[in-house]
């Protein structure tokens, strides 16, 4: 009887909610939610997509005339809601191009965070001088990590509609 009463209460709540909102407004709300979910999946996807990520970072570097000389994957850091993937990179270039590159990385369609930046002078001055675009450019070496996040697929909650049981009144 308790189960039937809770289902009746849940149905009454759903009917009251439906009477407040027209079908058109519910469809609009659903479309907005779907669009937000699509953006969220782009920022924090549920798949690792390493080739796409590395191509985006390489493209961000090429757009400002830089080459990524070294990419090393680091161990994955597991989390409750998402895992953190980290890659170590090394880039050689002038200060302004490197700043523009980091801006490009920060503007990508998924969350990629440059962390642990270490700036140093190049070991091979002759090679560094060849990279100068202007006579007064100072060439530096940047070693840093980028980290990105991969959402974990949420397991179906116990008591979901998939197994014939209505969600609790607090579910949304």
Break the fold down into its secondary structure elements and pairings.
Elements: H1 2-20, H2 23-43, H3 50-62, E1 68-73, E2 82-94, H4 95-106, E3 112-120, H5 125-130, E4 139-151
Antiparallel strand pairs: 1-2, 2-4, 3-4
Helix pairs in contact: 3-4
Mean pLDDT figure: 75
Backbone structural class: alpha+beta
Q: Describe the main β-sheet briefly.
A: 4 strands, antiparallel
Approximate helicity band: 40-55%
Q: Strand-and-helix sequence, N→C?
A: HHHEEHEHE
What is the global morphology?
elongated
Segments where pLDDT lies below 50 for 5+ residues?
160-172
Distance between the termini: 24 Å
- Gyration radius, to the nearest Å? 25 Å
Quick one: how many beta strands? 4
Residue fraction in strands:
15-25%
Number of helices: 5
Q: Could you give the order of strands across the largest sheet? A: 1-2-4-3
Short description:
This protein has 172 residues and is of the alpha+beta class. The protein has helices at residues 2-20, 23-43, 50-62, 95-106, 125-130, and strands at 68-73, 82-94, 112-120, 139-151. It has a four-stranded antiparallel beta sheet with strand order 1-2-4-3.
Characteristic terms for this protein:
single chain, 172 residues, alpha+beta, four-stranded antiparallel sheet, 4 strands, 41% helix, elongated, disordered C terminus
Describe this entry's structure for a reader.
This protein has 172 residues and is α+β, with helices and mostly antiparallel strands. Helices cover 41% and strands 24% of the residues. It has helices at 2-20, 23-43, 50-62, 95-106, 125-130, and strands spanning 68-73, 82-94, 112-120, 139-151. It has a four-stranded antiparallel beta sheet with strand order 1-2-4-3. Strand 1 (68-73) and strand 2 (82-94) form a beta hairpin. Helix 3 packs antiparallel against helix 4. It is elongated. Residues 160-172 have low confidence and may be disordered.
């Amino acid at each position: 009887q308790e189960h039937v009463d809770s289902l009746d209460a849940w149905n009454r709540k759903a009917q009251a909610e439906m009477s407040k909102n027209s079908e058109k407004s519910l469809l609009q709300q659903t479309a907005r939610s779907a669009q937000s979910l699509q953006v969220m999946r782009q920022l924090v996807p549920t798949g690792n997509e390493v080739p796409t990520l590395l191509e985006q970072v390489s493209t961000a570097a090429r757009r400002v005339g830089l080459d990524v000389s070294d990419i090393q994957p680091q161990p994955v850091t597991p989390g409750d809601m998402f895992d953190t993937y980290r890659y170590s990179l090394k880039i050689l270039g002038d200060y302004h191009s490197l700043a523009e590159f980091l801006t490009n990385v920060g503007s990508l369609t998924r969350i990629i965070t440059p962390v642990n930046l270490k700036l140093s002078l190049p070991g091979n001055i002759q090679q560094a001088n060849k990279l100068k675009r202007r006579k007064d450019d100072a060439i530096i070496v940047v070693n840093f990590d980028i980290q990105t996040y991969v959402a974990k697929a949420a397991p179906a909650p116990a008591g979901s509609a998939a197994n014939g049981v209505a969600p609790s009144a607090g579910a949304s």
